[in-house]
Every structure is written in C-alpha cells, then in structure tokens.
UniProtKB/TrEMBL annotation:
The gene is atp6. GO terms for molecular function: proton-transporting ATP synthase activity, rotational mechanism. It is a multi-pass membrane protein. GO terms for cellular component: mitochondrial inner membrane; proton-transporting ATP synthase complex. InterPro entries: ATP_synth_F0_asu, ATP_synth_F0_asu_AS, ATP_synth_F0_asu_bact/mt, F0_ATP_A_sf. Mitochondrial membrane ATP synthase (F(1)F(0) ATP synthase or Complex V) produces ATP from ADP in the presence of a proton gradient across the membrane which is generated by electron transport complexes of the respiratory chain. F-type ATPases consist of two structural domains, F(1) - containing the extramembraneous catalytic core and F(0) - containing the membrane proton channel, linked together by a central stalk and a peripheral stalk. During catalysis, ATP synthesis in the catalytic domain of F(1) is coupled via a rotary mechanism of the central stalk subunits to proton translocation. SUPFAM superfamilies: F1F0 ATP synthase subunit A. NCBIfam families: ATP_synt_6_or_A (TIGR01131), PRK05815.2-4 (NF004482). Keywords: ATP synthesis, CF(0), Hydrogen ion transport, Ion transport, Membrane, Mitochondrion, Mitochondrion inner membrane, Transmembrane, Transmembrane helix, Transport. It comes from Salix purpurea. F-type ATPases have 2 components, CF(1) - the catalytic core - and CF(0) - the membrane proton channel. CF(1) has five subunits: alpha(3), beta(3), gamma(1), delta(1), epsilon(1). CF(0) has three main subunits: a, b and c. This is ATP synthase subunit a.
C-alpha cells in the first residue's frame, strides 16, 4: 500500500502479532464465558489465575502493593502475557518468531522506557532528575556521574530489546541448523549416516526443551525488568 512516498506492507511480524493477540483474546473468552466465576475453576480459568498470580508476585515485591501502585499491574500483565504467547508461538513448526526480530523487541522496549520516564516525571516532577546524582557524591565528580548515570539510564531501553532478541534468535537459529543437519543425514543413502542420525536428533529434542524454558523465562525476565525500572522511577533512590 503506497501513500505518497511511503510504502506500507502487512508483513509476517504484523500477521503473527495479530495472531498472538487473537489467541490471548480467545483465552480470555474461554475464561469469561466458560468458567469465569464458577466455584470449581476449569482448566482455562486455572491457567489465567496462575498467570495472574505469577505476575502479581513480582509487582508486589518490586513496586509494592500499597498506595495505589498496583495500578501498573494491568499494563505489566498484558506485556508478560503478550511476550509469553509470542515466544511460545515461535516454537510451533513452520511458525514465525516475532521476538527474533530486533526492530520488534526494540520498539517494545523503547515504548516501555518512554512510558516509565513519563511516570517518573508525573510522580516526582523535576525531582525525578535527582536519580542522576546519588547522595553524598563529591561536587567535582558530579558532572561525570550525571553523564554516566544518564547513559546507563538510556541504555535500559536498548538492553531490554537486545536481551530478548538475542536469546530468541540464538536458540532458534541453533535448533534450525541442527534440524537441517539431522534431516540431511537421515536422507542420505548411506548406512553410516543413518545409524549416526539419532545423535543430532537427540540434541535437537534437548534444545527444543531448552528453548521452551528460554521462551518462558525471557517473558518473566522482561516483566521483572519493567517492575525494577518502575520502582526506580517511582521511589527514586
């Protein structure tokens, strides 16, 4: 689609993010329409309650559950659920891993970084800038520390996106390479390669299990990072 000199395309990331959103909404539909509020929760309701508690614990630990600070919980829960579904969706054969694209993870991390900065200014005003200068610092070192703290703070946006992208991309690439290697050995008309093929196949199965753990842990790590950054923005030092 062309608008002036700009071109817009409905790409694979767009399609699979829309598919992820549809899966999340479908899960919510099953909970609210088929089991929500029942005395004995069904499997869908138990799953959503588990996800709810799983995210609520770090929010209470890092930010605190008092003084209205849980108002950030819905945003964090949406981020965790969306990241978890995107990561796990990429484990399906012939699927597409959205989080293995750096621009996608960078866009997500930058949007969260900007939002947290806005929250910091709303909560503390210009006093929010005091986190750039820890208490008790000698005056001659103040300019250098302010610069270092500012660079460190800005790199939070990059680090969150790079960590998720690098972990998902590295693991998926390794699984793909070893899968292709195992399939090539299996298809060769040679008894030696056929006998030796279970070795790479076993490694692929082990890496697949490891990637499932990475997909879940990376969603959790991203959630913890958001909670820590929010705590810094709200409570400063």
């Amino acid at each position: 689609m062309k608008i002036g000199d700009l071109y817009f395309s409905f790409t694979n990331p767009s399609f699979f993010m829309l598919l992820t959103l549809s899966l999340v909404l479908l899960l919510v539909h099953f909970v609210t329409k088929k089991g929500g509020g029942t005395l004995v929760p069904n499997a869908w309701q138990s799953l959503v309650e588990f996800l709810y508690d799983f995210v609520l614990n770090p929010v209470n630990e890092q930010i605190g559950g008092l003084s209205g600070k849980q108002k950030f919980f819905p945003r964090i829960l949406v981020t965790f659920t969306f990241s978890l579904f995107r990561n796990l969706q990429g484990m399906i054969p012939y699927s597409f891993t959205v989080t293995s694209h750096f621009l996608i993870t960078l866009g997500l991390s930058f949007s969260i970084f900007i939002g947290i900065t806005i929250v910091g200014f709303q909560k503390n005003g210009l006093h929010f800038l005091s986190f750039l200068l820890p208490a008790g610092v000698p005056l001659p070192l103040a300019p250098f520390l302010v610069l270092l703290e500012l660079i460190s703070y800005c790199f939070r946006a990059l680090s969150s996106g790079i960590r998720l992208f690098a972990n998902m991309m590295a693991g998926h690439s390794l699984v793909k390479i070893l899968s292709g290697f195992a399939w090539t050995m299996l298809c060769m008309n040679n008894l030696f390669y056929f006998i030796g093929d279970p070795g790479p196949l076993f490694i692929v199965l082990a890496l697949t299990g490891l990637e499932l753990g990475v997909a879940i842990s990376q969603a959790h790590v991203s959630t913890i990072s958001i909670c820590i950054y929010l705590n810094d923005a709200i409570n400063l030092h």
